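Dear support,

I submitted the protein below through the web form. The confirmation email said the job was done, but the results page showed an empty box. After a refresh the structure appeared. I'm attaching both so you can tell me whether what I see now is the final result or a partial one.
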Amino acid sequence: MHRTVLDAEHAAFRASMRAFIDAEVVPSFGKWYDDGQVPREFYYRLGELGVFGLEAPVRFGGAGRTSFGFRTVLAEEIARAAVSFGGASVHVTRCLPLVTALATPAQQARWLPGIVTGDTMFALAVAEPGTGSEPAGMRTTAPLSVDGSTYVVNGSKTYVAGGVHADRVIVCARTAAPRPDDPAHGLSLLVVDTAATGFRVGRRLDTLGRKLSGTAELTFTDVRVPAADVLGAPHRAVAHLAGQLPRERLGIAVGAYAQAKAAVRFARKHTAERIAFTQPLSAFQNTKFELAACQTEVDAVEAVVDRALAAHDRGELGDAHAASAKLFATETAGRVIDRCLQLHGGAGYLTDSPIARLYADHRIDRLQGGTSDVLRTIIATGMGL
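What the results page shows now:
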């Protein structure tokens, strides 16, 4: 069925990304996976191809695209090949939108060219050990110096995807005391140079999936950040981050759809090639019914995701709508991927199999960007309940 949210430009982008992934990523991916990281040079290559600059302003070397369809196509092609672009995801899906939305013209001139080329990789550090991302529990402090020129950051952050290779990290830190009625007040976003004295990449986290994301703990000991490197309004970090949540949740929903679609593709291929009792597994009625059921769920997710994608491109994607899309896409994808792994039998339990990687990689989607229970609360609130 023709997808009306994607046009000829999206199709051309898909062809170029598929050719690139097949020629330059798939042959090297096994080594990257064994090493536990993509090489730093790979990010320069993504910059050359324009992947980082799709949504960046043209004056800074970007393409100035506003359609989320390009990110959708990229997610589908990455999942189709069962590969990973490492920390590139958070660089363009979380950090670039924050910089383009909140940075001053002078800040954009300093940071966006490097973001587009891959010379300056960004990461986002919000969650803290023991407290997560709850504003009232954040202990990383960054008081302003007496002369007003510098913030001094002390504390630690965890679950920082892309933290291993980051050149700049957007850090949520407490720059002022909270108000009795507003624990989020006083939290600001500071863009920290990872070359600064006192910054350290701590323990690299061994995650269940997304092994190449470069997820790490970061520590800050008297790290000095120029006052000119505050991103957005001081003391408004939580509001700034919340403003990006609909887009973030759409991105997660798109990724879940891409993974579910890829899982069906892998299951179809495996069952067609696996012989049991003198015939392919795909010849058995149970296999056909399972694949048909999975395809039906993928079709339903596609419809939900495409509706949210169209709303985003019209500037109409609201909190409840994005939460609904993410909840449905991630919960459904979890079922589909599990059933497709089942069709692989023991082969699906090997960590080097594409379906096993999808199974592990997808699990975080029901946690990040708001857990499924948090999303249900948002949807219920949107219903007036």
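Response: this is the final, complete result; the empty box was a page-load delay. The radius of gyration is 21 Å.
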